[in-house]
Amino acid sequence: MHRAVLEVERKFAGFAVPRLTADAGTPGFRDLRYLGQQSFTDIYYDGDKLASNGAWLRKRRLDGKMPTWEAKCRRGGTFINSAFEEINYVRSIAALVGDMTGRRDTSTNAFGLKIIASLTTNRKSWCADDRFKIVLDLMDFGHQVGEVEQERTIMLPYRQGCNFDVAAWKRTIARRMDTEILDFMNHYHWAFRKEVPKGKLTAYFERHCQVQKALSVTPAQR
User: Fold this and answer.
1) Domain boundaries, the chain
2) Which residues have C-beta within 8 Å of that of residue 134, sequence separation ≥ 6?
3) Taking Cα atoms as reference points, which of 78, 118, 68, 71 lies closest to residue 99?
4) Are residues 180 and 150 in contact, defined by beta-carbon separation less than 8 angstroms?
5) Is 218's pLDDT higher than 50?
6) Where is average pLDDT lowest: 60-74, 88-102, 145-159, 191-205?
7) What is the dihedral of CA 84, 87, 88, 90, to 10 degrees?
8) How far apart are CA 216 and CA 5, in angstroms?
9) What topology is assigned to 2-216 in CATH?
10) Residue 204 belongs to what H/E stretch?
11) Please, are residues 115 and 47 in contact by the beta-carbon 8 Å criterion?
């Protein structure tokens, strides 16, 4: 029996209401539970092959906990609406990195990769209508972005001689999940700002380039 975790998310720029509550707009949420907030630091790693092949690898450290490795492989969608398969087992991550980069190394050596970004996030989370997770992230460099997410664990029995297209099956499920999120966001349109959102890594690299450019300017040029 094969187990896979699919995560589908749609980004938004922020809330369109001062405070997210069940009755802050019309129609109101059938159910909205605040899950609290947490702070964590993500360190992203790459060589030159992971991101270009639709994969991201990070080490996440939650406050008071040991860091954990997480890999995500894109299974469809675009920047705004993304579908990923999550990989949390170190051995599976090592195999993924090896297949994509040719590097065969251990987590002790960061799988032979280098750090490309490090950022700390303060996250607030809600569970809406018992099915959708809403998160709002504020990064340590001032950027804000939100996501509406669904996560689903799927089990696929493998049978000898079976000609089943697993990748197509995962894409079909991911598209269905994305449609459900889009319908949810359209139904509660009053809650989400309409501007085009910017992902945290995109904002991080833009900010990093601005800082590097500023540092490269001589006193006379300032």
Assistant:
1) 2-216
2) 20, 125, 126, 127, 128, 146, 147, 148, 149
3) 71
4) yes
5) no
6) 145-159
7) -150
8) 44
9) Hypothetical Protein Pfu-838710-001 (2.40.320)
10) helix 200-216
11) no
